[in-house]
Hints:
alpha/beta; 6-stranded mixed β-sheet; 10 strands; 17% strand; rod-shaped
Amino acid sequence: MRSIYLRNLIKGYWKKKWLFIGGLIVFVLIFGFIGLRRAYPERMDSSLAEEIQEYNDEVAVYDEAIDGINTNIDIAKEQLATEEEYCDNSIFMQIDPQNVQMASVQYILTVPDASSTTDENNLLTSDIHAMEAYFTDGNFLSELTDRLDIENSNYLSEIISFDSTGKTITLAVKHYDMDEAHEILEEMIDLIEAYKPEVEKQFGSFTMTSMGESERSYADESVLTTQNKEKSNLRSYRTNLSDLQTKLATQSTNRKNYIEQYKPSGTSSSPRRTLLMYGGVGVIAGLIIPILLYAIYYTLSTRIKGKEELQAVDLNILALFRPKKGYEPSIEQAAVNLKLLAQKNDTDTVSVCAVGESPALEQVQSDLTEALAKQDIETYPVKQGEEDAEKLERMTKIRNHVLLVEAGRTTYTQLEEQMQFCKSLDITIWGCVVIE
Length: 436
């Protein structure tokens, strides 16, 4: 006749909630203490503290070395990226050293109003220096870049030149394509001629006579030398980066091997994480284990848990008594219901049997006896196991029975024995009052 009801299980949990809370606290404290020992073992053992300090110092050396290598790798990557961009995008690096395309123009400068050759030479020297300064340090390159609608204009300074000899200046462009060389040269001519009035404002008027543009293709050993130098730099940067990455891998492996070989037992790489982990395990264990233990106890217990188990065997629940809340429905209503049953069965006596023994059962038996007396119903109180021959004879004559059952005390065996006893004597059980 045993049945398991979730409602009774939950009710049991609630009744023993402080026990569960205490269990939770105990588990959290136990696992918290274990976590503390795992997270900070050196605080528990002075000899271990020295070992851990030596271990941490050595790991710190590895970490410092790895950080330094990573810094050098970042620098090497930046150098390599810069060099690769230069070699891929520079116009100069695309020139064939055996077939350099050059376009150039020469100007002869004169000062018509000079008072003497010496005066003219001094003025022309100043004029040439001013134009050369504009070409090398002024806005010439940026203005030329703005004018040209070509790619890789950032590397123009490598392929253009300004040379002067005596009264002559030469503008030249080295390129891998002659047409583009002439295009750049035309823009250079426009810029240098447009700058002439600025120079005249400072040093006086002079003339620039163009000797015409020229072009030629030739082999240039200096171009090959420079290109080889840059390619050698590129290879060096790649080799350096590869060496650093290998060094990093080696250092990381050494660090890992050191940790695996020398890490003190019981140490934690992340104390805070260890504490949180053990604390979490303590909370989970503190919630689950007491609940499981109680569920096992509830399942294996031989005691009646609640009214549902009595209803499952077709026993009529006359009233439910809870010490803190009283009767539900009232004991008076239960007495009225029993009076109606007595009238129906043509009797004025009700046998009330306490299944078990406890102060609560005695109180309910007394309350029911008093309530039935008010309904002019005689009560014949008995206790299970105390039926002698005289009581058996009286109960057989009364032929009815009201059971008093206390959840958590009355066992399934006691109830079943009482029900079999009534069945054997052909005594009708009118119902029961349950104490919860």
